[in-house]
Every structure is written in structure tokens, then in C-alpha cells.
Amino acid sequence: MTVLVVTGTGTEIGKTVSTAAIAATALARGRSVAVLKPAQTGVAEGEPGDAAEVARLAGAVTLLELARYPEPLAPATAARRAGRPPVRPHEVADAAGKLATEHDLVLVEGAGGLLVRFDETGATLADAARLLGAPVLVVAHAGLGTLNATTLTTEALRVRGLECPGVVIGSWPAAADLASRCNVADLPESSGVPLLGAVPQGAPALPPAEFRAQAPGWLAPRLDGTWEAARLAA
């Protein structure tokens, strides 16, 4: 995968820390990595956004942010209220394509879920992924309710002819409840795609060097890691 789009089943689901884990694991393999954030919302000018957080945790990645809107809203709404131009899917595809000519891996981190609107036409991250011909990784919640949200997201990808390599749990609790433990087996069956990792709760608070050392153990071999779902279930 030269370009991998990272989406989630909702907001505050662990997309950024999962993106950082993927970037750190790729860097450990000697690959060059770029991180593209098409639309950063809810962050003022001069403040570190999601892309900067990926770099803090993962290390030497190239960062590109196409647009920033101060209010924590869907990109289309945030752009309209800020009186600024929205991000268009072709701009995302063009930027990711250029980065892909200079890097081994380009990670495109969306805002919110897959079908959050980018502009007034209803364009979404899925449209950018289609233009890129890129697979879309889904980051999901661990606990109750995740089966429905994750399955809806993977079905939306299939309807649009987009490849989904799998699902990563964005925050695996230190004391997993019954629903979370059952979801390790149920998520692949429900979503139709494999479980490709689980980032532990509290991972963003780790010192960066420790985060980078541990990240490969949170991701499956498909994402260059060493993680196994059976080990998590146990």
C-alpha cells in the first residue's frame, strides 16, 4: 500500500493514535512516511493539530494539512461558518498522489467518520479514496455498539467499490469488559474484514520513544506489525 486512507466509525475513536502507530511501525521498517490531514477542525491557527500529534508520537514523518477550520464541526459546516473554501476530493487525491511519488507510505487521516461532508456537494473522504484508488482502514471503538457502526462503515465502502483491508481498535481498555472481549471475535464476522490491531488505551501518553518501540506490537503483519488477535482475546 503506497497510500492508505484512515477513517473511523465516528469522532474521538482513536484515528490519530492509530495513524501514529502505523507511521511508527513503517518508520521502524525503514520506510519513508508522509501524513496528510485534508481538513483539520476544532484547532486554532498556530496550535498543533492531528498531523503534529502523529509526528510527535511516530517521529520523522512529512506532514501536510490542506485546510484548517477553528470550530469542532464537520469540515463542510466548519468551512462555511469560517467563510473559507472547503476541501475538495480532487485536492486530497492530488496532494496524496504527489506525496506518494516521494514517500514509501502516505497516510491520509480523515475527520470524523467516512461519510462526513467535505463540501456543499456532499463529497466525502470516500470520494477522495475512490479518486486515489486507495484502500481505507477503519478505526473502531472496542465496546458495546461497535459492531453496528463498524459494519455500516465497511458496507458503505463495499457499496462504493472501495477496498477495506481491515479494522483497528483505536483504544483497547486496560480492563476490557465482556462486550469488548466478545467483539474481538465478532467484529471480523460482522464487518466482513479482519481485525488488524488494537492500540492500548493511554498509548498517546507514553513517551514517544516508548510509543515507537511498542507500536509494532499493536498492529497485525498486514500493517507491518506482530500483533495477533488470538493473543488479545486471551
Automatic annotation (TrEMBL):
Keyword Nucleotide-binding: yes
The keyword Nucleus is annotated on this UniProt entry: no
Residues that, per the record, bind Mg(2+): T16, D50, E109
GO biological process, one term: biotin biosynthetic process
Protein name: ATP-dependent dethiobiotin synthetase BioD
Positions that bind substrate: T41
UniProt keywords, alphabetically: ATP-binding, Biotin biosynthesis, Cytoplasm, Ligase, Magnesium, Metal-binding, Nucleotide-binding
GO molecular function: ATP binding; dethiobiotin synthase activity; magnesium ion binding
Catalytic activity: (7R,8S)-7,8-diammoniononanoate + CO2 + ATP = (4R,5S)-dethiobiotin + ADP + phosphate + 3 H(+)
Purpose of the protein: Catalyzes a mechanistically unusual reaction, the ATP-dependent insertion of CO2 between the N7 and N8 nitrogen atoms of 7,8-diaminopelargonic acid (DAPA, also called 7,8-diammoniononanoate) to form a ureido ring.
Active site: K37
Similarity comment text for this entry: Belongs to the dethiobiotin synthetase family.
Chain sites annotated for binding ATP: E12, I13, G14, K15, T16, V17, D50, E109, G110, A111, G112, G170, S171, Q201
Predominant place of localization: cytoplasm
Subcellular location: Cytoplasm
Pathway where it operates: Cofactor biosynthesis; biotin biosynthesis; biotin from 7,8-diaminononanoate: step 1/2
PANTHER family linked to this entry: DETHIOBIOTIN SYNTHETASE
Cofactor(s) required, per the database record: Mg(2+)
Native source species: Streptomyces antioxidans
